[in-house]
Write a structure and sequence with these properties.
The chain is an alpha+beta fold and 241 residues long. The chain has 7 helices and 8 strands, in the order H-E-E-E-E-H-E-H-E-H-E-E-H-H-H. An 8-stranded mixed beta sheet has the order 4-3-2-1-5-8-7-6, sandwiched between helices. Helix 1 crosses helix 6 and helix 3 crosses helix 5.
Length: 241
């Protein structure tokens, strides 16, 4: 399989997995970057049916934001998030911009995210928040978001959503799930009392190696679930019976 075919397959699969998990819906988009060719493969944007996305549905952008393929489909208007970060950080092979509900809850209170579960220790240094209330629709805004992400794995966009930068699509899936799951735990635990946040020293020393291994296992797990996902459960049998 060529690199292009592999990246298209993975981004299409991950788009469907995120749809299955409620992390991509009417909003949000994800991309993969081929540093050899400078081509960015991105799922279509607003109101595209993420749950049935196939490799041939993807947009191809260059790093300047020119659309090389995909005309006629729903343009992901916040593409400057992807071009800005992929331009600066060639080691980032995959980026997600999600409006995932629980991580976005932290963006809705303009509060930096900190984990409250050990499984979220990769974020023990905190997830910074981009302070401007804008959709990221211009290269200038994309650059300012990339400033906030810096060399890190994620940022929150104020009153808006999240940005996740990962080595590859497998790690994008795992890191996004961890951020959302640990944000959900924090929101639910807040009803019980004061949150007991992890500290930077709670991040394991071998965090990078652990991440690569767990990301591959999580990919297999969710790809298996997605392959047997019933996209359209039968309805009406009770009402009509
Ligand atoms: Zn958005």
């Amino acid at each position: 399989m060529t690199m292009e075919a592999e990246l298209r397959e993975k981004i299409a699969t991950l788009t469907r997995i995120f749809a299955m998990r409620g992390l991509l819906g009417i909003h949000g988009h994800i991309s993969a970057f081929d540093a050899e060719t400078g081509r960015i493969y991105m799922c279509p944007g607003f109101a595209w049916d993420k749950a049935t996305t196939q490799p041939g549905d993807l947009f191809v952008f260059d790093l300047k934001g020119n659309i090389l393929e995909g005309q006629g489909r729903r343009v992901p208007i916040e593409w400057p998030i992807h071009t800005a970060i992929h331009s600066r950080r060639p080691e980032v092979g995959a980026i997600g911009h999600l409006h995932s509900p629980y991580a976005t809850a932290f963006a809705a209170v303009n509060q930096e995210f900190r984990p409250v579960l050990l499984q979220g220790s990769m974020f023990a240094n905190g997830v910074p928040i981009f302070p401007e209330r804008h959709l990221i629709t211009t290269p200038d805004l994309g650059e300012r978001v990339a400033d906030v992400v810096g060399g890190g794995r994620a940022a929150l966009l104020r009153n808006h959503g999240t940005v996740i930068a990962a080595s590859n699509p497998e790690e994008l899936l795992f890191v996004s799930m961890i951020l959302e799951d640990t944000a959900r735990a924090a929101v639910e635990a807040a009803a019980l009392g004061q949150l007991d946040f992890l500290e930077p020293e709670d991040m394991p020393a071998n965090e990078g190696a652990r991440l690569a291994d767990r990301a591959q296992a999580a990919w297999k797990y969710f790809a298996t679930l997605e392959a047997r996902w019933d996209r359209q459960p039968p309805i009406g049998s009770v009402a009509l019976g």
